[in-house]
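HOLO CASE FILE
Compound: adenosine-5'-diphosphate
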Amino acid sequence: MFNLKVINEIKCSFPANSRNEGLARSLVSAFSAQLDPTAGEIGEIKTAVSEAVTNCIVHGYRGCANGNIELVGRILEDNVLYIKIRDKGCGIADVKQAMEPLYTSAPEEERAGLGFAVMESFMDRVSVKSSLNKGTSVIMTRKIPPASERQE
Ligand SMILES: Nc1ncnc2c1ncn2[C@@H]1O[C@H](COP(=O)(O)OP(=O)(O)O)[C@@H](O)[C@H]1O
Ligand SMILES: [Mg+2]
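Model generated. Tokens follow.
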């Protein structure tokens, strides 16, 4: 999947502030429009992006408001959308545990622990790389079949 040719790419960086969640959703939505997704596909991709961006804000940069989030969007060959969301925050000690459905390190904040499960259910692949005190990057891909191949 990741050795597919890159056809188009955007990169941007913005402060890890919840006011930028909508920006990230809109950016990805506008960029992925090149693949002519359905409204359902767009909605699912935006939800996955929201979960990843929220995690950078509430977990990655917990207690330090000055971090940035980097977003990379790519159109890969074969109609694949690639999204990378990266923070340089606290990192995750145990990625496997963090990705388990219902696991949250913040139960007192009434977090559901379903962010990664949502990303995995809405995207074809989700890959998480993290180093303690260095940060976390989440790479997600989803194939958007052309209208002619859509299964109605
Ligand atoms: N960007 C991140 N930086 C640090 N920790 C993270 C990050 N994203 C996720 N985590 C960790 O993974 C856990 C699970 O994330 P998630 O499935 O979204 O559930 P929730 O956000 O509801 O806790 C979080 O509770 C947190 O401990
Ligand atoms: Mg979450």
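CASE NOTES: Residues 51, 55-56, 59-60, 87, 89-90, 92, 98, 103-106, 111-116, 136 surround adenosine-5'-diphosphate (ligand 1) (CB under 6 Å). Residues 128 and 138 are 5 Å apart (CA to CA).
CLOSED: yes
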